[in-house]
Specification:
The chain is an alpha+beta fold. It has 11 helices and 15 strands. Helices cover 37% and strands 24% of the residues. The protein starts with 7 loop residues before the first strand and ends in a 10-residue tail after the last helix.
Length: 382
């Protein structure tokens, strides 16, 4: 009797839309909506990724001998490093100064989405290696400099490390639900001064404002039209050009349904600001924000405090409010580690990056420890 592992076949697909939704979602599960067929194809079908964007969708799949899909990963050929939130511009500069071509590269990620989640969608963890070997072969055979998997959920980080990929750490700020029954119960674990600060901010933000939580079919075309203006303002200020097309919001609304929560602020009946959230099985993900009228603390109210209210109401374990933002700590969000994994084809370049990551990892760990000591919680309530 042979002990040989069953034969697996890796394929590069022309977009997630080329894979039947039921097959993809059987592997993706339901906890993290960003790796679901509905979200990823909304990006493809709306033109937010694809021709002219620098994000060419090339999902990798693995099938067994019977043609049964046992593994998949969302992957993109990248011609730049925009929309990733894990910054490798210095690596690109160093590699190109040494005479190499850093682009194209392979990005294993959810575009424009700095939210933790699975990157190896597998029936069984034993199929992870086949996906990673396929990603490596794609790089080598097509002259890509490297492959990068970003915002990997903790349960999968060892799968990358065990297969020789380099791990990189960074910091985000998440709110953790410790069984709070209300926002006031959450406030009770903060220091007295911070409780007063947060109450003052909420009162100022809500003065003269009506806030509505819209879910699923309650989000009408007029709401998407208003939110598009908000998103355009933020996108042009932050990135120069907004990443998502107008059609992306319509398609997300159609395909994600009750998994979308749009929190909007109205003044004198006019929509002036909004924050779009995605509801996961265990977390609320704050994704996009914008406004057409500045009001003190309104950004904190819609993006952070209202998100906490929504998470408590739904019994969700945490709020991930996006990348960066040390100012979130004063609002009860705590520093957590985020992890990416990197495969570099050139051995010399790989060693240089490995040395850099060793030093960077120590610095990030020290920063996270320092920040953890500066949260607004009373001693013993962290």
């Amino acid at each position: 009797m042979s002990d040989a592992a069953p034969a697996l076949t890796a394929r590069i697909r022309d977009g997630v839309g080329a894979i039947p939704p039921a097959e993809w979602d059987r592997l993706a599960g339901t906890d993290n909506p960003f790796v679901g067929h509905a979200f990823l194809t909304a990006l493809e079908d709306s033109g937010s990724v694809g021709s002219g964007t620098g994000w060419q969708s090339l999902p990798i799949t693995v099938e067994d001998a019977a043609g049964h899909l046992v593994g998949a990963m969302p992957a993109y050929a990248k011609g730049h490093s925009q929309g990733e939130y894990v910054f490798d511009h210095a690596w690109a500069d160093a590699f190109e100064r040494a005479g190499g071509n850093y682009y194209p590269k392979l990005q294993i990620a959810v575009p424009f989405t700095p939210a933790t989640g699975p990157r190896l969608l597998v029936e069984d963890e034993s199929h992870a290696a086949a996906l990673l070997r396929a990603a490596e072969a794609l790089c080598v055979q097509n002259g890509f400099s490297s492959a990068h998997a970003t915002f990997i959920e903790p349960a999968q980080q060892a799968l990358f490390a065990d297969n020789g990929w380099l791990l990189r750490s960074d910091i985000q700020f998440h709110w953790t639900n410790r069984g709070y029954a209300s926002f006031d119960e959450f406030l009770a674990v903060l220091t007295s001064r911070k409780r007063k600060d947060l109450r003052k901010e909420r009162a100022a933000a809500q003065d003269g404002i009506t806030i509505r939580h819209l879910v699923g079919d309650a989000i009408q075309p007029k709401h998407w039209d208003a939110f598009w203006l908000f998103y355009q303002d933020t996108g042009m200020r932050k990135w120069g050009t907004p990443y998502l097309t107008r059609a992306a919001f319509d398609l997300m609304g159609e395909r994600l349904g009750d998994r979308l929560l749009l929190i909007m602020a109205f003044e004198d009946g006019e929509a002036i600001a909004g924050a779009l959230n995605v509801i996961g099985g265990s977390a609320l993900y704050g994704r996009y924000w914008g406004c057409i009228r500045n009001k003190p603390f309104l950004h904190f109210e819609l993006c952070y405090y209202q998100a906490i209210d929504a998470a408590i109401a739904r019994g969700l374990g945490r709020v991930e409010a996006g990348a960066q933002g040390g100012h979130k700590m004063a609002r009860g969000y705590e520093p957590v580690e985020t992890v990416s994994a990197h495969y570099l084809v050139d051995p010399g370049f790989r060693q240089a990056v490995a040395d850099f990551l060793d030093a960077e990892r120590r610095g990030v760990a020290a920063d996270r420890e320092l920040l953890a000591g500066r949260t607004p919680f009373k001693l013993g309530d962290r």
